[in-house]
Write a structure and sequence with these properties.
It is built from 4 helices and 4 strands, in the order ααβββαβα. By secondary structure, it is an alpha+beta fold. A 4-stranded mixed β-sheet has the order 3-2-1-4, with no helix packed on it. The radius of gyration is 35 Å and the shape is elongated. The termini are far apart.
């Protein structure tokens, strides 16, 4: 029966060490999926707009994902994640407006643009992280309560074990003190 204790210890170690490892792996996977590989920095993108190198672009206003096409590379869609959409619009709006006043629609130097409103996540998707956290906390609480229930920390009424003094039931005794009144 020596193997049973080893398997129990191994299961406990895997459970307590495995949960954090799984959580870290999920977070890293989600981070890597959301990251786009771009070699351009923000100032280079704004400079391309000021030099009129951008032919057209489409900007998602909620996620900040921008797909743009350069004049020297037509039909080659490049991607960039704008860190702050409102700041980007402040930086680029005047450049685009002046450029499009000089070159009206239909001219090759005009900058075409489209803004996507983005999609709002459903209420279930917004509630999911909170529900998962509560579920994990309940599971941990139940595991700890089971472990405490199996331990000798709780008082027992077993004849073989002695109870601490404060848990021993006592009977009220009649007072044996005599009255000194005469």
């Amino acid at each position: 029966m020596k193997g049973v204790g080893f398997l129990s210890k191994l299961k406990n170690i895997l459970m307590y060490a495995g949960i954090p490892i799984v959580i870290v792996a999920v977070v890293l996977t989600m981070y890597n999926l959301s990251e786009t590989n771009t070699k351009k920095n923000y100032s280079a993108i704004v400079e391309m707009f000021s030099k009129n190198e951008v032919k057209k672009f489409e900007l998602n206003l909620s996620s900040g994902e921008m797909v743009y096409e350069l004049r020297n590379k037509p039909n080659d869609a490049l991607k960039y994640n704008v860190p702050n959409v409102s700041l980007f619009m402040e930086d680029v709006n005047e450049i685009i407006t002046e450029n499009n006043k000089k070159y009206p629609n239909g001219t090759p130097q005009n900058i075409e643009y489209n803004f996507k409103p983005g999609n709002e996540a459903s209420w279930f998707v917004n509630l999911l992280p909170t529900a998962l956290l509560i579920g994990v906390l309940v599971v941990i609480w139940v595991l700890f309560m089971r472990r405490i229930g199996k331990s000798s920390m709780l008082p027992t009424t077993d004849e073989k074990r002695r109870l601490p003094m404060w848990l021993v039931p006592t009977k009220k005794r009649k007072s044996s003190a005599k009255s000194f009144s005469s």
